[in-house]
Amino acid sequence: MKDKSIHILNFVGLGFFEPAIRLAAGEEVKKNIIALLKKVLLPIVSVGLFLIIWHSGATYLYNVEKDARIEKALADRGEAAALEMETCIDSGDISCQPNTLPSPAQVWTAYKSLLVDHRVISEKKDAFSEKVAATNAKRKAQGLAPIKYTGRPSFVDQIFTSLKTVFAGFLLAFLIAVPIGIMLGLSTTLRSSVNWLIQIFKPVSPVVWLLLVFMIVKTLTKNSDSDSSFIISFISVGLCSMWATLVNTSMGVSSVDKDYINVAKVLQLSVGQKVFKIILPSSFPLIFTGLRITLSVAWMVLIAIELLAQSPGLGSFVWEEFQNGANDSNSKIIVAMFVIGIIGFLLDRLMLTIQKFVTFTEETA
Amino acid sequence: MAYIELRNVSKSFGTGKDRTEVLSNINLEIEEGEFVAIVGFTGSGKTTLINLISGLMMPDEGQVLFKGEPVTGPSHERGVIFQNYSLLPWLNVRNNVGMAVKEAFKKMTKKDRSKRVEDYVEMVNLSPAINKLPKELSGGMRQRVSVTRALSMSPDVILMDEPLSALDALTRGNLQQEILKIWNQDKKTALLITNDVDEGILMADRIIPLKPGPKATLGPEYKINLDRPRDKTALNHNEEYKKLRNGIMEYLIQIGEQRASKKENTYTLPDISPKIRFKPFSKISFS
């Protein structure tokens, strides 16, 4: 049980919990306490320090903003107005709160309010689908599209929309980059013939890709009334992020150890077998490194692309909150920031775990 | 007609100014069932020679003949045991050997194939490790897998490219005996490339030194008329063995010296003396 859970933790890249488990099993107490201190407590301390710095920074900015408001009131409308402003701010009234970097506590409140909001919206949705269930069944029988809930999506819904977009984009990148990468890796002629194109397109910014995709998709979907923003954003994500995989795959395939190629020759493997049994397995580590970079780039550019493409998701959530300018908008943006960061981290761990499943490790134990 | 024959074989690498002729004018004949060892210094083109015979490389000049036919590429008939094992790290022992068996015996049923794999792995005493990955094996075990892989295809010739040079002395001795034991079973033609004269004498019927490259050629051959099976410790007191060993060593040392003397260049030093611009320590006073 103990060894198994340690193994699993190490496998998914959460090895820093290992000492805690060993400690729970009462194994080498002193050594494991030190290891636990190093691996778990120190990170917690640094997170705490970060929160303290954040809090004090936010307080300082709050005070600067507050003073500016009071002074402005004093200059514009006189002393009475200034006093009124000060009491208003101190009372915590929403109407006159200084708008600046939110403190950790405010962000936490915003996080909870987002969850509450999600619950409310989910309830509304359920109620709606219950209400239209009978109608939808009838419409289905008639061959009509069911009536969908068209209310505002909650924050959690936005997360799932973003994940959907990023996976669609990642899949697209995977389907384009890996086969092309393999072909490029196998043929020097092909590689040198498209090398310039790759070098030119690789550094192009996500925004430009979005515009390019927009130009094409807009024309192609002219006659359909479907929402093209999802298509635009996932294609842009795929195109931005595929380069790492493309380059890594072609490099991995072209740099297969000469010994393995010799083995393939001596065994007289056919071309197909050589590719699938020798070249691909031996370049898996590099391909997966590329895919990991691709996924993290995809997640990173997704936010920017959603923001610009007006497609639903975390990016547009951030942008809408910024435009909204409500008193808790800033806090919600910070919540989104953390959620984006944590999901990015989890996605990377997910890829790492898959990578460990399918690739070999070269070195001796 | 010899089983394997090399006629005036030359091989160069590089182009233009960087072109170096590694092997030059190699003539070699190996009879069926014979065990020939080629000894030489590192970098003398031994691996190139093996690659030419296995068909991984083509000669620039001359011909490599196998059973009277020119060699045009690698073939199952000539099994190669590589110096660095060249096992596929993502496959376990069973699959590494199985891949070779599958290629060599395409018509065999799956069951027969896996039986064959297991038999051959058993032969080198690796059955307990059959499901292990190469990284979980020691160097000696890996080389055994490599030997098994080559033999499982039942080649007519076994080409060994310094198969034991990366192993420690004890493992090396064991594996020498094992390879000899397997060779004894069906007396396949074998070519061993090595840098160890003792190993050559212990295993081969004939030893041929390879003069160091560039432009390496084969030296005079030494027949070994020692009775098989040969025992390493007993050999140490055998007069014939001592004579052979000394003869080959002397020859190798002699050609080694020739090579060293060839490289001797004289460099004339420019006639300059260092200039001292300032005296850094003169201003430091320790008061």
From TrEMBL, chain A:
Q: Which residues form the ABC transmembrane type-1 domain?
A: 159-351
Membrane topology per the entry is: Multi-pass membrane protein
The entry's localization annotation reads: Cell membrane
Which cellular components does GO assign to this protein? plasma membrane
Pfam families, alphabetized: BPD_transp_1 (PF00528)
Q: In its keyword annotation, does this UniProt entry include Transcription regulation?
A: no
Keywords on this record?
Cell membrane, Membrane, Transmembrane, Transmembrane helix, Transport
Asked if the record carries the keyword Lipid biosynthesis, the reply is no
Tell me, in one coarse class, where this protein mainly resides.
Answer: membrane
Tell me the CDD domains matching this sequence: TM_PBP2 (cd06261)
**What are the transmembrane regions?**
40-62, 165-184, 196-217, 229-248, 284-309, 329-347
Checking InterPro entries in the record gives: MetI-like, MetI-like_sf
Q: Which family does it belong to?
A: Belongs to the binding-protein-dependent transport system permease family.
What protein name is recorded for this chain? Nitrate/nitrite transport system permease protein
Species of provenance: Aquimarina spongiae
Automatic annotation (TrEMBL), chain B:
- Every copy of the ABC transporter domain together lies at 4-237
Record InterPro entries:
AAA+_ATPase (IPR003593), ABC_transporter-like_ATP-bd (IPR003439), ABC_transporter_ATP-bind (IPR050166), P-loop_NTPase (IPR027417)
Report the protein name in the record: Nitrate/nitrite transport system ATP-binding protein
Annotated SMART domains: AAA
Question: Which UniProt key words apply to this protein?
Answer: ATP-binding, Nucleotide-binding, Transport
Signal peptide limits: none
**What GO MF terms are annotated?**
ATP binding; ATP hydrolysis activity
The reply on keyword Nucleotide-binding is yes
